Amino acid sequence: MIGDIVGKGGRKTLQKLLPTIIKENQINFVIAQGENSAGGFGITKKTSKDFFDSGVDVITSGNHIWDKSDIFEDLDALNSKILRPNNYPKEKPGTGVFFNNELAVINLLGSVWMGKIDSPFDSINNILNELPNIPIFIDLHAEATSEKAALTWYLDGRISGLVGTHTHVATCDHKILPQGTAFVSDLGMVGAKNSILGFDKDASLSRFFNGERKRMLPIEQGEMIFNSVLIETDNTTKKTTSISRIDEHTII
Ligand SMILES: [Fe+2]
Ligand SMILES: [Fe+2]
Q: What is the rounded CA–CA span in Å between residue 239 and residue 221?
C-alpha cells in the first residue's frame, strides 16, 4: 500500500520504482493513494493510467477526489478500480468498496478536521457484513492518528489491515494487533524531498507568514521519496503475518 502520490514527480517516481519493488518482493496486489496525482489536486484518466501502467491494482483517494471532474465517470464504472471515500454521500459518483475473489479494498475518510462527513465508524459494520470471507484492507484517509488507531482497534480480527493516508508524513508505528490486523498511522507520500508535503515550500511558507494564498505547485524534479508498506496476509486465516515499511529515494 503506497502513500499519496503527488503530481508528475510522484507519478514518475512510481513508474521508476514500483515494477522492481513488485518483482523483488513478489507482490500480488498493489493499492495506491491517488488523490494528489493530477497537478497535486485530484485524479484524471491520464494520471490513473500512469498508476495502472506502473503496476497499481486499485487506486484509493480522499478529500481531493472531487477536484477534477474528468475522473467521475471512471468512478461510476462497474467494478471500478478507482475508489472514493465510501462515507461521502451516496449521490456522489462512485463507491469506496472494491472486491474480487481474493481480497477487498475499502476507502474511508476521517471525520476529524475533514469538513462535514459521516463518521467512518457509522457504516463500517454494514460494509463488512456485505463482503465475502476474504482479506480486507482499508485506507482511512484522515488527519487524526487517534481516529486511525481507534478504527483499527475496533476492527481488529475482522480486517487484515488498515493504513492511514492524507498527512503525507510516513510514520514508523506499523504493527500487527493481537487478532491479526495490520496497522500504520500514515503511509507517507511519493513526492519531492525538498518540499512541504510534496509542494513548493515557498507557497506554503507565505500562507504562514502573511496569509497570502499562493498557488500550490507540486515539485516535479530532484530528489524524490517513495513511502509504502508491504503487508503479508494468510489467505486461509485472513490474519496478517507481517507488515514492513518499503521507503526509497531516487532522483527524477
Ligand atoms: Fe494527500
Ligand atoms: Fe488528503
A: 40
